[in-house]
Amino acid sequence: MSNQTDTDSTASPVRRIAILGARVDDVTWDETLSQVDRFIKSGQPHQIMTPNPEFIMIAQRDAAFRTLLDRVDLAPADGIGLKWAARVLGERLRELVPGSELVERLGDAAAGGQRWFLLGAAEGVAAAVGVELRRRYGGLQIAGVWSGAPGPEHDDELCARIEAAKPVDVLLVAYGAPQQDLWIARNQPRLRIPVAIGVGGTFNFIAGRSRRPPRIVKRLNLIWLFRLITEPWRWRRQLALVRFAGLVLREAAVRSVSAQNTGTRSM
Ligand code: UDP
User: CB of 177 closer than 6 A to ligand 1?
Assistant: First the structure.
């Protein structure tokens, strides 16, 4: 993993914005897919995170997570909440690149026998995802699947499994944030997989364990509401979204007051 997106020779410069001090990249689908393609061709290790408002809230209290988000190779915006926040803060995100859809688009684009390793989720889920992905995407080989656990005490065992399955072009890790992203950062120096992505609950969607949002829900950017209705136990976690909205509005108000003060002083 490079230290800075814009100094990585295999990455094109990407415009970053800050939302509540946390990094989000203004990248389109096309830019994301071509960036991933370059990462794979380079053979060098890369890490991708797909920040959503929950990530931004974790970054408020967890400096290590905030620093990691800042130094991964690509951080496309996942979730309408970020697009709204960017607008309120006078920034612009051209497109959303939700992590769940990213896996499918990468599958669509996977040509020439690309090899993926699927790590994480509950027992049996990664295996079911492997079967489903192979069925859907002819250009894809599943190098291995394993549920495992995200704690550092399991790192050696999990890395040995992934090593044994090499070559691996893409590693998808489904342990939820922040564990999945910290897992990748901790283990990429020895694994050196060209593309490693934390994918949250995506395996559950693909394996049919969580209900898939219908296309209209995706088009209206209401995936968060759909998940709240279909998985009501999430309500406590989704309170983070309310806190996120409150912080964004407060930040916008603070900026507008300080802009007014500057204007008054310079009169
Ligand atoms: N998970 C896991 N081990 C853990 C914690 C989480 O395998 O110790 C998996 C969990 O089964 C789920 C995924 O991590 O498949 C996290 O999904 P969640 O819906 O919380 O992620 P989101 O999409 O909301 O980021």
Answer: yes
Q: How far is the CA of 90 from the centre of ligand 1 (A)?
A: 33
Euclidean distance between CA atoms 202 and 205, whole angstroms: 5
d(C-alpha 55, C-alpha 72), whole Å: 14
Against a cut of 0.70, is the pTM above it?
yes
Contact by Cβ (8 Å): 137, 108: yes
- SS3 for 152-197 is HHHHHHHHHHHHHHCCCCEEEEECCCCHHHHHHHHHHHHHCCCEEE
Distance, in Å, from the CA atom of 12 to the CA atom of 54, rounded to the nearest integer, reads: 27
List of E strands, 14-164: 16-19, 22-25, 47-48, 114-120, 140-146
176 ligand 1 Cβ < 6 A: yes
Nearby residues of 41 by Cβ (< 8 Å), 6 or more positions away = 10
Over residues 160-184, the pLDDT tens digits come to 999 999 999 999 999 999 999 999 9
Which residue's CA lies nearest to atom 7 of ligand 1? Answer: 121
Q: Does ligand 1 lie within 6 Å of residue 79's CB atom?
A: no
Distances (CA, A) of 141 to 16, 106, 129, 165, 167: 33, 13, 12, 11, 11
The pLDDT tens digits of the residues spanning 19-59 come to 999 999 999 999 999 999 999 999 999 999 999 999 999 99
Q: How far apart are CA 199 and CA 118, in angstroms?
A: 10
Residue with tokens 């490079």: 2
Decide: 191 in ligand 1 pocket, CB within 6 A: no
